[in-house]
Amino acid sequence: MLGAPPGSPTRRDFISQLGAGFGSVALASLLHESGLLAAEVPASAPGGRAPHHRPRAKQVIQLFMLGGASQCDTFDYKPELQRRGGEKVNFTVTGGTQASAGPLLKSPWDWRQHGQSGRWVTSALPHLAQCVDDMAFLMAMHAPTSEHSAGQTMQTSGFVVPGFPTVGAWVSYALGKLTDNLPVFVALPDPVGLPWTGKAAWTNGFLPALHQGTMLNPAAENPVPDLFAPKSAGFVTAASERAGLDVLAQLNRAQLQPGDSRLEARIASYELAARMQLAVPDVLDLRGETDTTKTLYGFGDAKTEPLGRNCLIARRLVERGVRFVQLWCGSGLAGASGNWDNHGDITPGSDFERMCVRSDRPIAGLLHDLKARGLLDETIVLWTTEFGRTPYSQGSKGRDHNGNTFVSWMAGGGIKGGATYGESDEFSFRAARDTTMCYDQHATMLHLLGYDHERLVFRHNGADRRLTDVHGQVIREILA
Amino acid sequence: MCEIVWLVGVCAMMGGTALRAEDFFTAKVEPLLRQHCYECHSHSAGKMKGGLTLDSRSGWAEGGDGGPAVVPGKPGESRLLKAVRHELGDLQMPSKKPKLADADIATLARWIELGAPDPRVQAAAAEAAWWSLKPLPRAVETSVPRSSPAGASASPIDAFIRAKLDAHGLAPSPEADRVTLIRRLTFDLHGLPPPPEEIAAFETDRAADAYTRLVERLLASPRYGERWARHWLDVVHYGESNGLGMDRPRFEAWPYRDYVIAAFNADKPYARFVQEQLAADALFPNEPALIPALGFAAAGPFNQSALVEQVDGTDCKRLALNLDRDDMVTSTASTFLSLTVHCARCHEHKFDPISQRDYYRLQAVFAGVGRAVRNYDADPRLRVMRTTLSKLIAELEKNPAAHPPAAAERVELGRAQIEWEKSLAAQAVNWIPLEVEKVSSVTNTTLFTRLDDGSWLASGTAADKDTYTIRVRTKLSKLTALRLEVLPDERLPMRGPGRQDNGNLHLSEIRLSLASVSGSSASAPALLPVAEKLTPLALQNPTADFNQAGWGIERAIDGKKETAWGIHPQIGKPHQAVFELKQPPALTNGAALVIELDQLHGQHHLIGRFRVSATDRALPVRTPTLPLELLAKLARPESERTDAERKQLFDQHRLVFLKRQLAELPPEQKVWSIAGDFAPVRNYKPFKEPLPIAVLRRGDLKQPLATVGPGALAAVGTLSPEFALTNPNDEAARRAALARWITSPDNMLTWRSIVNRVWHWHFGRGLVATPNDFGRMGALPTHPELLDWLAVQFRDGGGSFKQLHRLIVSSATYRQSSVAADVRRRTGDATDLRLLTSAATIDSDNRLLWRMDRPRLDAESVRDALLAASGRLDLTMGGPSAMQFQFADPNKEVSPRVDYAAFDPDSPASFRRSVYRFLFRNLNDPLLDAFDAVDPSLSTPSRHATTTPLQALSLWNNRFVLRQCEHLAARLEREAGTVEARIDRAFRLLCARAPTPAETALLTGHARQHGLASACRVLVNSNEFLFVN
Q: What is the ipTM of this complex?
């Protein structure tokens, strides 16, 4: 285990510096990794629970549009809203930040139908519009809150209060690991900053800490906290690393106690840590990616590259056996303009457009790339946000929070591409028909992963807790 | 045939006992429901389609979305019957299944006709048989097993434990060696390793009471309170930030933490400890130093964005208020009663005899409090002075004649008034209006109109953000200060003075510049445009007549565009801000000045109407604190004032005088706690009286049922759940009543709960393995008689924690070896070998305590032990929390930025004990996180102890850890001469023992080659350091 090398760490650098010791063990494993992944998924992966039925997918990428992405300007086409823009309609305002509704605000973006499925998408998302036949849309999602952190916590954990395990933690708890080299659950915050609830957005809640999301920060000296010794620790050298780990293993082996497996587990944990030291820089080393691939994700354009880089890393994580990748678009800590909370303006040139541009090409690229590599078949991609926005205006050009209806989509493993479920009312103010909540989406995801959401439980403080609380129904209409 | 018999039976008993009718339900009706309905309508299936459950009486009585499912006695009105008869249109039950047989439908109809007897409700209510709800035995009944081989000298604890071991054919392990014992005890009672000198002293102490004296010494040290307070803080989910989306720091939370530490150190009786945390203000009003105890119910998360930022009446706000109370109820019941009452928020408790009514009665206890920074004076005399003054001021403000001053006071006031008037005269400012030449806006959408009074009104499309530029001329020859007035106007939203919908404005920055013609204009050809030069004039000491909370006037000159001055909620009124010039310039007559007003907050927080003026008065120049009209009166000499004016001025001055007296008292202390009354923060205001609390069907705010008053749990049969309150609107009395109910000697849950927690913290597992849940979903006690014996001892012994510790740690059970093989090694007896084998098979996870467990150090102990070994541990107690991270808080609207990796581990804050570290909810320390530190979002009665690769990485690479390795190496070099001696000392400091020759050889070899710090790094990562035998 080495001190962080100068400059960008590369896999080769690490391997050459490590020489012998745990590093070589890890290397051997790393080289066999693709072989491991190609093999059948075992009935119950290490650390996981036996599935309840045959799974359709084995991995998940959750894309979170932080701030409340406007369904009125992306996916939820309402001719009535387009026709009656400017008109005052008497809505019963139940959430949001304003006490009363402004006049209807027609979307300033062009609506067009796309793909075989004829899904309506605005001109704000030209690249995602090309993917609609791979996506299944939940058009009448709703949330019990129109407040950011509660809304975010709801979508990430199924509860509006903090402290409950997040979706990724449940997936880790259920499915266990596919690889020893990387964490089961990885969170990729937007490079501009953390979500509303900081690191609580990938908490394990009351599940054991091993199910916690590991934050990957590609730009940091340590992309994973404490992956390498800091430069400030001058006494750490490549030789002391190797020899030190060797002495440690000898000490620990000599102190084993019969009947206490934890002591052996700790010895193993250092071996796993060494593998992670190789695998993490390897995931982040994008030099092996072709220009075509990089272009697909929006590299080369400062507006799209930041998220494109994370999307590409997400694919590489999935390729290497990470179960659950949580990828954030938008930050709650970067001020009003760093997310989808577009109270002031949703017209061209606004922050709304910047968020669309920031994510459109990278996410479309991710879908294309996953599909081209055959990964989409067994990977669920789930696009969500904490709530929608009002069809009426806030100020003159913005929209307020609206938990009454919003749009979410899913794609990949076991999802019926081009499907649509649910419908909002004539203005997209309230979910109207075949309404769904995060419970249903999470139940559907778990179903595709091989689990019955009602049977996947963890006993905590007197209750058998579920990801879906006491709710949720698998949305069969969007299953392939 | 059976059917007939039953119906006959039922008919026969119509006038008889209800019991038979209930038998009918159990035998005939329930099986039908179970077979056809439960699949979609029961807790057991976890489904409540249409909101309906049928596995409890309340389920059908409340019914589903369509209302009650059964109306007793009225089959025709019962939706259940209509649904199975297919009389409700599409609602045909059972759903998508064949219609029920006519006989079955008739059974259901008959049952409803009979009044729908349903015994299941009694089954839930009559739960006295459940172990945790049984009354505690009387002291004389708690007999200690006698027939045990432990002998008369053994502690009663051992007798209970051995009786159980005997019954399973098991034997206890021998006593651990001295080194093991002192390390175990010191980590257990202090959370720190024993210093090598203390180990040596204890090893060689041959006195019979050596162990007892060690225990006493450890319990007397303040380190004990620090360690045990941390346990308590886990349970009460104490954090120092709000959590959720606005994870704002709580800089005033720590007094609660210090209160808990002090309570443990002082061995505060448990009943008193509980009472103070729930209702110190009500129960001990003469001991204001106890106010920090009220931090208990406020310790959890706080949804600031909903509770503070949202206006009242929205769904979000109502939900957030409900969940805020839920957090208090949950915390109270989990902490003190080990019950999961929160399950009854949405439905009758599925497993325990807790009704929704019980739950909402507990909510009503907290229906009058909010979470806020509460001011208090630890000194009661100071409190009296402060309240007397505040009350007097408040009354005089309403009615100046309310309390005429006494003669002596009148003399003193008269003298002070002369000084006051002098100082005011010295402050009078002559403001000269600035002559405005031009006003413009960068957005060009704003129009400006000059009004008669020299002010300007903004109109036209309000931009999201804007900057106004005002070009003025002045005849002043010197400019010392600038005044900006913002004025109300009927044409502005809410009368202004801002253009935001709510009348507010946000002035991000104000800049003043002197405009001068550049170059030598006199010689320039007259036809060329003249270039103008702007020289910025720095502003200072800004004052305003009113500042919005968190939006003070100083923010208008702080150079940050994201901070601003605001005036909400004082809208519809004139306001003014005054700015001094840092270096007042000398001006030529008619000099041109440019004032720029940045208003960059967005969402139309723009100034609606303004006026600018200036003065040449000598500094300081401040915004006046008196009404302008009064100032005019003061300008006249005393002799020319009317009596009415004299009186008005006297009264006004008296208030100023009293307010100054108040301000000169030592500042109040502050604690984040629950409070009935507190200073409003935007939309979060104290409730004038407790909010009405209704039982909510399915926990849904839109479906309120009956309103309930404050009360406790009916399931505790030894006590009445009703509170006899003289004034039901006195919220503090509600809390006091609950505190008394909880701490009653007859509340069996309270006493069982706490002794089980203490046992859990000593042994790593409670006698009940689920310390927060004594209900049916929790574990059963492994040693129920021991639990009861301890509970009674503890209760009747005055609730002394230290006495309980003595009892437990002096037991042979606690002093056993943790090494399974010791049973055999010590005796070499074949019988014991057999015992060992059976122990491993009968009780491999040691529930019966045939040996001691081997806990891994918890997160705080890892960190503190490293500091203790490195010699850097700072034992300063109490006070504001140590920020062991880099902290930046650029935007007070959102969570701050917290960087642990960038924090210098040699900063003084780094060396404090971990119980004093600042606890951000959303941004925990990755090092402590890796060792399962708690997430204070929810209560943590029992910590995980995981082993993960990330934990290995943290202990191996974390900057703080590596720095302590360097400090430890330096210490070893100071304290020992040879490498061998240094390695020996490192082992003693970290593992409490001398190394074996093989270990010495291994580590000295490594140290010689790679340095002593590297050897320390290895040892710090060893299992022996991390586990306690």
A: 0.75
